[in-house]
């Protein structure tokens, strides 16, 4: 098997983590774009959601991750027992996640389901790929919010579609590769074609935001409905 070499160095992130909810068991945050969820092996990639939070909440652990460029809602467990309960909710798919994104071009359908298995390929790292034979099941639902044109600094008029995405599974890069599969990559996505259409080359970030997270409190079983408005 090919050895995976990660050469990515994250630029400094000066944005703060916003706290949406906290108690003695868990913390719900709004992660800024441009911050790693977990510190990398390279010492230059030390800064991360976990690195920052463990200074405030010793012993906290990540339940799930958001990609470096993705902003939005994350839940973090304050101890291992809580982490196990929350991870079970994610694995049993009882957690509802809602994202907002800007896609390149205008989607023709107003809503739909993307059912396309996703596979890892060490030779293509960090890219994932769609593979009917090697991939694990991956399913996402989408709904168009608006279609519009954005005028860039150079005067170019770029067609964009604002959509709501609801992943039913949680594969790595799922929403990014599923949108590319639709033929409309997420604006600003460097891995899956979101910087290729004319006028998109200087997009400052990945236009993907985790806007809602719905789950049950691991002890009280009370519903927690976390929201964060899309910044774009």
Give the biggest beta sheet.
Answer: 10 strands, mixed
Q: Which percent bin holds the helix content?
A: 10-25%
Report the uncertain regions. Answer: none
- Rg on CA atoms, Å: 18 Å
* Average predicted confidence as pLDDT: 95
N to C succession of SSEs: EEHEEHEEEEEEHEE
What is the total tally of β strands? 12
Tally of separate helices = 3
Beta strand %: 25-35%
User: Termini distance?
Assistant: 40 Å
Shape: globular
The helix/strand class is mainly beta
GO biological process, one term: enzyme-directed rRNA pseudouridine synthesis
Keywords: Isomerase, Lyase
Protein name: Ribosomal large subunit pseudouridine synthase A
Domain Pseudouridine synthase RsuA/RluA-like: 25-180
Please provide a written account of the structure.
With 232 residues, the protein is mainly beta. Helices cover 12% and strands 34% of the residues. The protein has 3 helices and 12 strands; from the N terminus they run E-E-H-E-E-H-E-E-E-E-E-E-H-E-E. It has helices at 49-56, 80-91, 174-182, and strands at residues 18-22, 26-31, 61-62, 71-77, 96-104, 111-115, 118-120, 128-130, 139-151, 157-167, 208-216, 223-227. The strands form 2 sheets. Strands 1, 2, 3, 4, 5, 6, 9, 10, 11 and 12 form a 10-stranded mixed beta sheet that branches. A two-stranded antiparallel ribbon has the order 7-8. The longest helix is centred in the middle third of the chain and has 12 residues, at 80-91. This is Ribosomal large subunit pseudouridine synthase A. Residues 25-180 form the Pseudouridine synthase RsuA/RluA-like domain. Its EC number is 4.2.1.70, 5.4.99.12.
